[in-house]
Structure formats: structure tokens, C-alpha cells
């Protein structure tokens, strides 16, 4: 059961209905099934994400958000469906090929080399043709003073900045950010999340953002989906979702109204769960 909540905006409804092929999507999934072993966790997910757009993936614990991100990154084999980058299907469970296609994951454990300095962490990750270490640090000036400090000695907020800066030097076409706020004080999260928006705006990267701070995430995202037990229970324009906390709460609880009747497709959906 999927409900959509969209604000058509001044240009009228988004012509792309759920699952529509717009021809412009940088990241597209079709009937994507993710899971562990043979057990499906996320079922039948269709996404169409255009250049420079930010999608917030919301949902309660255990909904399948990390499973989705890990599968998109090619670290977990998908159980069904397709993932396409700029129209090119990605091979299944091939992280190197996925990375070459421009997909970069900032995982919730940050996965830094704790015994290496900030500079070393960035230098070894840098991809030729991508932003320089100096350019990446322009996004996080606070790290400039910490260049020779080992990653393991940084504060949680600094480690998260480094994890995102390390993703930036890989020149992502698609940036997957899994729970940036994990273990961070809300005041730090409020500083970090807008950076994600800036990255999408400045570099044109698609950003997929898993976040528990729902309202902060909706402030920086263009669109959002709510995943519950692996199904999309709500999808739509982030600003519209932010204005409707009751609908959001109902989606989290799995008690949303049924999706619009067949023949009246909801417009502008970033995502649907296949029926
Ligand atoms: N390695 C694993 N092997 C088997 N099942 C797993 C594994 N990791 C997660 N799961 C199961 O997959 C489901 C989705 O977990 P996932 O971590 O993707 O949810 P999540 O939405 O990211 O939750 P959270 O917000 O708590 O991080 C859960 O039922 C979880 O128990």
C-alpha cells in the first residue's frame, strides 16, 4: 500500500507518474528486491532520481533502509529487479563496478581508517579527475585544522565530516548517505545535513539520504519515501510531507489511507513499491 503526497508546484503536475521512465534519471531502480540470504526485506522498489536531487529515505528501525543502501552500493546481492545508472544496468553485487559507475556509500559506521590522518584518508580515496583534497575541505573548513590528526582521534562530528569529504573526493554521481546523524548531537546534525543539499546543488550528484531526524531530512530533501517493513507506505514532495505530520505518522505506523484508485496515477512520485 503506497500513498503519495505531492505538491505539483507552479509548473503543474510532474509528468512522471510512479515508475515512469523519464529518460533523465541518473539513478533508477525497477522492481528492486533487497534482502539477506534468500529473505526479502525491501520489495519491488521503483525509484527515478534526477541529477542534483535529494531523496530522504525515512522509516522506523528495521524497515530495510540500510539493506537498501548496501544493495544499491553493490555490497549486498539484490534478490530481484534492476538498478540503472544513467540508463546503464549495473551488474549484481559488484561493488567495484558500482563504484566505477559513480555510486559512493557513506555507511553508518563511517568506515574510516582510524590509524591514518585526515589527509591520508582523503588522499588514498581520491579519484583522478575528482575534487582535490583541498577542494573537498572547502566544504568542511573545520577539518583544515585537523589534517594531520588521526581519524580515530576526531570527534564524532568531525569523523562524519571526513566520511562525507572522503566520498566527495571520489567524485560521486550518486551519493548514498546512511544515517549521517548516528551518534551525533542534534546541533551537529543541523549543521551537517544542509551540506548534503549543497553537494547536490553544486555537483549535480543525486543524494539518497537515510535519516532518523525526519524533519531535518525533509528540510534538505526534494522528495522522500517512508519505508515500513520493506514497503513504501508514503512517497512524495519533501515540503508537502513536512507540512503533514499526521500523514507522516500514519505512514510510520502503517495506517495510511489506500493509494489513489487505478486510473488516477499520483504524479511526481520518486518511488513506489510495486503492487
Ligand atoms: N546481516 C543480516 N542478516 C540477516 N538479516 C539482517 C541483516 N541485517 C539486517 N537484517 C534484517 O533486515 C531487516 C532490515 O534491517 P535494516 O538494518 O536494513 O533496517 P533499517 O531500516 O536500516 O533499521 P535501522 O534504522 O535500525 O538501522 C531487519 O529485519 C534486520 O533484522
TrEMBL record:
Enzyme class: hydrolase
Name listed for the protein in its UniProt record: High-affinity branched-chain amino acid transport protein (ABC superfamily, atp_bind)
A Pfam family assignment: ABC_tran
EC numbers for this chain: 3.6.3.-
InterPro entries: AAA+_ATPase, ABC_transporter-like_ATP-bd, ABC_transporter-like_CS, BCAA_Transport_ATP-bd_LivF, P-loop_NTPase
Statement: the UniProt record of this protein carries the keyword Protease: no
Species whose genome carries this gene: Frankia alni (strain DSM 45986 / CECT 9034 / ACN14a)
Gene Ontology terms: biological process: L-amino acid transport
Residue span of region Disordered: 1-22, 256-275
Keyword ATP-binding: yes
Protein family (similarity comment): Belongs to the ABC transporter superfamily.
Biased composition (Low complexity): 264-275
Molecular functions (GO terms): ATP binding; ATP hydrolysis activity; branched-chain amino acid transmembrane transporter activity
